[in-house]
């Protein structure tokens, strides 16, 4: 098994690593890219700059493999529950949308019916001078003929 100990990590970086988690290690000059596991973390509270992190190419034990599978299955189950809840929300929104669209159509039809009733009861105004001879002589003095 290959194993490395890294020291002089910055504390924010150090906190992001968790023991037993695997991380992609990429350093072509040292080794080809591979998943490596954090096997140990040591922090010296008196001298935090001397904290170190041990990573190794350590194989999974059966129990850790089973624990990883159980964790993955729980994640899948949680995801399925989330998807079902989102489907319910989406279905609810779709029914609300369809209901509001129907209400809009009903209101548009009611407006049209009211317009038709109103227009049917009110006679259309007819121009007063259709078919009549109009005397415009009184306006001739006001017209500027130039």
Provide tags for this entry.
single chain, 146 residues, alpha+beta, 2 domains, 4-stranded antiparallel β-sheet, 2 helices, elongated, coiled coil
Q: Tell me how many strands there are.
A: 4
Average pLDDT score: 80
What fraction of the residues are assigned to beta strands by DSSP?
15-25%
SS-based class? alpha+beta
State the share of residues found in helices, binned by percent: 40-55%
Tally of separate helices = 2
List the helices and strands and how they pair.
Blueprint lengths: L2 E5 L3 H6 L5 E6 L3 E12 L9 E5 L5 H60 L25
Antiparallel strand pairs: 1-4, 2-3, 3-4
Task: Provide a brief overview of the structure.
By secondary structure, the chain is an alpha+beta fold. The chain contains two helices and four strands. It has a four-stranded antiparallel sheet, with no helix packed on it.
What does this structure look like?
The protein has 146 residues and is α+β, with helices and mostly antiparallel strands. It folds into 2 domains: 57 residues; 59 residues. It is 45% helix and 19% strand. It is built from 2 helices and 4 strands. Strands 1-4-3-2 form a 4-stranded antiparallel β-sheet, with no helix packed on it. A hairpin with a 3-residue loop joins strand 2 and strand 3. The radius of gyration is 42 Å and the shape is elongated. The N and C termini lie far apart (113 Å). The mean pLDDT is 80.
